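Sanity check. The docking grid for S-adenosylmethionine depends on where the pocket ends up, so I'm generating a full predicted complex first rather than guessing from homology. Inputs follow.
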Amino acid sequence: MNTRYHDVAADHYDAKWGIDFGDLGLEQVSAKVRKALGPGAPERFERTLEIGAGTGYFTLNMLRAGMIGEATCSDISPGMLATLEANARRLGLEVKTQPADAEKLPFADASFDLVFGHAVLHHIPDLDRAFAELARVLAPGGRIVFAGEPSRYGDRLAGVPKRAASALAPLWRRAIGARPAPPAEGGAPDAALEGFVDVHAFAPVELSRAARSAGFEEVRVSGEELLANWFGWTNRTLEATADPRDVPWGWRQYAYRGYLLLQNLDRRLLEQRLPPAIFYNLMLTGARG
Ligand SMILES: C[S@@+](CC[C@H](N)C(=O)[O-])C[C@H]1O[C@@H](n2cnc3c(N)ncnc32)[C@H](O)[C@@H]1O
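Predicted complex below; grid placement will be based on this.
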């Protein structure tokens, strides 16, 4: 189902999720990876593998930032990898691609210094098998980094601003002078599978347990995005109810800049002080002994 869903999603994925390969994308991805790795980690990794690489958000931005050397991207969806290859060509970047299920990686033991992924672990049915594979393909001393994994409690908390925004949407549309969103023609082709591809939302301890059982050391799970996420979901929910042609430029600027501002506030003030479980996204790092 993940292969089918993401093959269909590949063409419009970057536009739907605002995947950026400019300065913003580079900054966002580098900051996430550095934050997940923590202080004292190497600045650069030579042989890297991304699992569930999608259209290349992490690998291509990390290559542009000079954080990684020889990059291999794998994904269960050949459609996503085709979009990734087109993105890499457009950016003039060199990557190897390999269709692969994270539960059964077609790479030799100890082939990589860093294995990473963004928003992928929650799609994988057998996490223990996947973590055993990550440990196998990593060289001794190599690291794993995963970011953008949905937090079970963070997701429940984000339901509050989503519900509030749905209730306020008619008032908001009147205030900005927007018509309701036109009905979707026949629905998105992949919509029927949407409910099946997300297999997990995690409590932090579930992620750390899976990594430790595969033999990883120095395992750390942290949380990111709290206020930024509530703000982002409120705006996304409101915008989804309006005809996109009627949403004013000023509103879009407010939503974009407000999100970045709150993300900064989360990073500087809240992420070190509050329990990871309440944040919307979880990050995981660990080292192979
Ligand atoms: C939410 S997308 C994230 C893509 C990309 N990492 C990003 O951040 O934009 C999840 C990706 O994981 C891939 N995926 C799902 N199940 C997988 C599996 N078992 N093994 C490898 N990749 C998988 C999907 O095809 C999809 O490209």
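Relevant for the grid: The longest helix spans residues 152-176.
Also worth noting: The chain has a mean pLDDT of 95.
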